[in-house]
């Protein structure tokens, strides 16, 4: 019985590279399932594939993603290194062309995953570069195990040997991004906040970049900003569109523009297609005030010593305000005492007492 269990464990466990080379780019690694949990993967067994103590196994994760894409259980495909041969024998197309939703496979004789091979899920295809997610069974104390997200380019030593097309994700060639601008505001002088979501069906689980133009649309004299990828968590987007939850953005931008003007936000296209204008919204941006002003003077006994004191309230912008109090003495006014304070709504003179 012990021999059978040991054989089953070896047979289903994926190849786990001991030292992944640095030629490719790893965007996420986690000892548990943290890098793939956003897909809904919980580490439970799917179609009979076992998992390690952290819920990881490359074949089990691949089976989960296929089932989520709507694939019926094709029957046991064996060890990761045998998936290409066994899938082809069952009538599935196996070739060298990656597609979103296909399963990347490394043979047991590959330099990347020698021994038992490896499988990963293809998240995106951008020319000769593919984005992958995977889950690795921790076989020994030396094995890295864990979950990861990474990219690799054709010609690199870590590039897969084959791609299995069991249940690819349908894509519309040349589709433009989809998204929405939920918020465009100016929360403080000299700043703009934009928030919303966006994705591109051509690479549905990739976090695409967002560009913001203050003062008009792209191609005009507007002030442009690249605020990076829309990779914030938006479970509501995944619930409706089934594209993963990593498509939100919420950024504050410093700007030299002031007054009422349009703020236009674009989702940047992946692959063929065009960038998408999500919306232009009118925003009033207040001017930062870097010069001190002295709007209020007051003379009274502030410290209770029976002598009149002089207080000067001054302001640097709307959020840096203080008061200089010059205490009265027998010979006049003493040295000032600076008392800064801050209030999110307004500056109350009585707060300085």
Give a short overview.
A hairpin with an 8-residue loop joins strand 14 and strand 15 (276-285). Strands 1-6-5-4-3-7-2 form a 7-stranded antiparallel beta sheet. It has a 4-stranded antiparallel beta sheet with strand order 8-9-13-12, with helices on one face. The chain folds into 3 domains: 2-165, endopeptidase domain like (from Nostoc punctiforme) (endopeptidase fold (from Nostoc punctiforme)), CATH 3.90.1720; 178-285, Immunoglobulin-like; 293-352, no CATH class.
How is this structure best described in words?
The protein has 353 residues and is mostly beta strands. The protein has helices at 2-12, 58-68, 83-89, 235-241; strands at 25-30, 93-95, 103-106, 118-126, 129-136, 146-153, 162-165, 178-185, 191-199, 209-214, 223-229, 232-233, 246-254, 259-267, 276-285, 293-300, 309-316, 320-326, 328-329, 332-333, 337-341. The protein has a 7-stranded antiparallel sheet. Strands 8-9-13-12 form a 4-stranded antiparallel sheet, covered by helices on one side. It has a 4-stranded antiparallel sheet with strand order 11-10-14-15, with no helix packed on it. The longest helix has 11 residues, at 2-12. The termini are far apart.
Number of helical stretches of at least 4 residues: 4
Assign the structural class, choosing from mainly alpha, mainly beta, alpha/beta, alpha+beta, or little secondary structure: mainly beta
Distance between the terminal alpha carbons, to the nearest Å? Answer: 83 Å
What is the residue-mean pLDDT, rounded to a whole number?
Answer: 82
- The portion of residues forming beta strands comes to 35-45%
């Amino acid at each position: 019985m012990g021999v059978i269990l040991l054989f089953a464990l070896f047979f289903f466990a994926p190849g786990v590279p001991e030292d992944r080379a640095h030629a490719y780019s790893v965007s996420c690694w986690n000892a548990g399932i943290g890098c793939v949990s956003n897909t809904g993967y919980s580490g439970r067994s799917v179609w009979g594939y076992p998992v390690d103590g952290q819920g990881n196994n490359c074949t089990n994760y691949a089976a989960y993603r296929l089932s989520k894409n709507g694939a019926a259980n094709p029957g046991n495909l064996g060890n990761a290194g045998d998936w290409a041969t066994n899938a082809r024998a069952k009538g599935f197309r196996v070739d060298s062309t990656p597609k979103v939703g296909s399963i990347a496979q490394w043979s047991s004789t590959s330099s990347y995953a020698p021994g038992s091979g490896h499988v990963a899920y293809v998240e995106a295809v951008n020319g000769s570069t593919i984005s992958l997610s995977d889950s690795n069974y921790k076989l020994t104390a030396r094995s890295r195990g864990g979950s990861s997200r990474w990219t690799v380019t054709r010609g690199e030593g870590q590039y897969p040997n084959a791609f299995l097309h069991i249940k690819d994700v349908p894509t519309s060639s040349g589709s433009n991004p989809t998204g929405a601008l939920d918020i465009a505001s100016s929360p403080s002088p000299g700043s703009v906040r934009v928030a919303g979501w966006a994705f591109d069906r051509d690479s549905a689980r990739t976090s695409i970049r967002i560009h913001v133009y203050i003062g008009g649309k792209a191609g005009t004299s507007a002030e442009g900003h690249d605020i990076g990828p829309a990779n914030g968590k938006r479970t509501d987007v995944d619930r409706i569109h089934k594209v993963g939850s990593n498509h939100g953005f919420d950024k504050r931008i410093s700007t030299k523009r002031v007054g009422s003007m349009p703020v236009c936000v674009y989702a940047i296209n992946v692959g063929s297609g065009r960038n998408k204008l999500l919306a232009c919204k009118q925003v009033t941006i207040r001017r930062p005030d870097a010069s001190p002003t002295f709007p209020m003077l007051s003379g009274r006994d502030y410290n209770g010593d029976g002598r009149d004191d002089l207080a000067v309230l001054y302001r640097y912008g709307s959020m840096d305000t203080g008061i200089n109090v010059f205490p009265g003495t027998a010979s006049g006014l003493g040295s000032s005492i600076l008392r800064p304070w801050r209030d999110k709504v307004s500056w109350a003179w009585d707060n300085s007492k």
